[in-house]
Design brief:
Number of helices: 19
Structural class: mainly alpha
Number of strands: 6
Largest sheet: 2 strands, antiparallel
Order of helices and strands: HHHHHHHEEHEHHEHEHHHEHHHHH
Strand content: under 5%
């Protein structure tokens, strides 16, 4: 057997690449390196803007040329960095050398020694990760997450009045509506999307142990914390003044925990929709050319929701691990976070793939109103709750002397199937007020949904 040519190991880079490719713009090695170049360039501009160490402010054309190193970053730079790192065996040092080379091309050799000035590699890395993760979340993950919420909201509103037998503990229970059940997920996810949107992205720029020691040694007269704060905030991040060599990663743990929580709510949605499909409440719309089973031609499998389940589980496993491990660093620095953070894209990738599948899946199902009606009509015993509650209210109001209404209905309905005629006969013979009796006689499983419909007005 001849060996295969080099192959990708992750399905995110193979089979599912099309669904997650936008994340590669930010959470890939190339995306990280571009952000590193951005941080190095902006630090150079920060230092020269303040005329530090004999420099003078760059003019607009020079700044534009420097920032073009970021906006024009592409395959040439990717390849060049690979060659440089093969020698340096240090990724950030390779970026520094790349920037120095470009300074020479731009005629800015005179500021080359300010490249990576007083910075530890983690000063560059923590800001680069904050930039790439925030961009990936805001530009890619959140829009897809909002699209799922939007699709779910439309379904909830469309089906708000469609009665459905509930299945508490998997057993027939007090009816609800399809729309109300979907609205529960909309409400849960809207809270979570707000939490993710409100996430802080922290950054530090304070040297090898977070003390500005090298900065002060170079020029003790400069207010280095103020310079650092202005620099970090100028990148659109929140400044962290108290750190070791690394930014403490607490914001990352918070963010990944929130996304993992969102994953689990989506997992709950996927399993519920899968179950409704199994019960026949939702029917799947055949997709042209699609095959459900290699041997059973009739099958339409709920693969979108099954795929989503698996990818949500993988995403949460990775993000939970990141959240758990990134908050610990031995003393002032260890490198356990280096390899760990390179998997941020994998965690978000599996979540994004799941979102894509859920969004597609929601577009490939519709409710089966006939099935919903049949199931409701086959379970009149669920009105036992309403009847015993009304009797208790009548007893309390002095319009009935029936003893232990709950036990009475338990005897009539528990573990039994009864029909409309059985309940009509039972209610007709009850010692309760005429108005209460009329309400009960008018009740059906399909109408016993309380305020399910108007509850959707609570959706924001």
């Amino acid at each position: 057997m001849s060996p295969l040519p080099p192959q990708v190991l992750s399905p995110l880079d193979g089979r599912y690449r099309a669904a997650v490719t936008e994340l590669g713009e930010y959470l890939s090695e190339a995306g990280l390196n571009r952000a590193r170049v951005q941080v190095e360039v902006e630090w150079l501009i920060t230092l020269t803007d303040r005329s530090l160490f004999g420099s003078v402010p760059l003019n607009a054309e020079q700044k534009l040329g420097l920032r073009a190193l970021v906006t024009d970053f592409g395959q040439t730079e990717i390849d060049e960095l690979a060659v440089l790192e093969a020698t340096t065996r240090h990724d950030v040092k390779a970026v520094e050398y790349l920037v120095r080379r470009r300074l020479s091309t731009l005629g800015l050799d005179h500021i080359s020694e300010l490249t990576h000035f007083a910075a530890t590699s983690e000063d560059i890395n923590n800001l680069s990760y904050a930039l790439t993760v925030s961009d990936a979340v805001r530009e890619v993950w959140l829009p897809k997450f909002r699209a799922v919420i939007g699709a779910l909201r439309l379904r909830a509103l469309e089906y708000r009045a469609d009665s459905m037998l509930a299945r508490t503990h998997g057993q027939p229970a007090t009816p609800t509506t399809v729309g109300k059940e979907l609205a529960v997920f909309v409400y849960r996810l809207e809270r979570l999307v707000q939490q993710v949107e409100d996430s802080e992205y922290l950054g530090k720029f304070s040297g090898a142990t977070g003390t500005f020691a090298a900065h002060v040694a170079a020029d003790p007269a400069v207010d280095w914390p103020a310079v650092s704060r202005g620099f970090v905030e100028g990148l659109g991040l929140t400044w962290n003044p108290l750190t070791t060599q690394i930014e403490s990663h607490d914001w990352q743990a918070e963010l990944y925990s929130r996304v993992s929580h969102a994953n689990r709510v989506l997992h709950n949605l996927a399993t519920d929709v899968w179950t409704y499909i199994s019960l026949g409440y939702f029917r799947q719309i055949p997709q042209v050319g699609a095959t459900g089973s290699s041997t059973m031609p009739h099958k339409i499998n709920p693969i979108r929701f099954e795929n989503a389940e698996a990818n949500l589980e993988l995403s949460s496993a990775i993000l939970d691990s990141l959240a758990a491990t990134l908050v610990t660093s031995r003393l002032q620095r260890d490198l356990t976070d280096s390899t760990t953070q390179r998997n941020i894209g994998v965690g978000f990738g599996h979540s994004l793939l799941a979102l894509d599948n859920i969004l597609r899946g929601l577009g490939e199902i519709d409710i089966d109103r006939a099935m919903l009606a049949r199931d409701l009509d086959a379970n009149w015993e669920i009105l036992g709750e309403a009847i015993q509650t009304v009797i208790r209210a009548e007893v309390s109001a002095g319009r009935s002397t029936i003893e232990d209404p709950y036990a009475l209905l338990k005897e009539l309905t528990r573990g039994k199937r009864i029909n409309r005629d059985d309940l009509v006969d039972f209610v007709t013979g009850l010692e309760i007020g005429d108005a209460a009796k009329a309400r009960l006689l008018a009740l059906t499983p399909g109408s016993y949904v309380g305020l399910a419909d108007p509850l959707l007005d609570y959706l924001t």
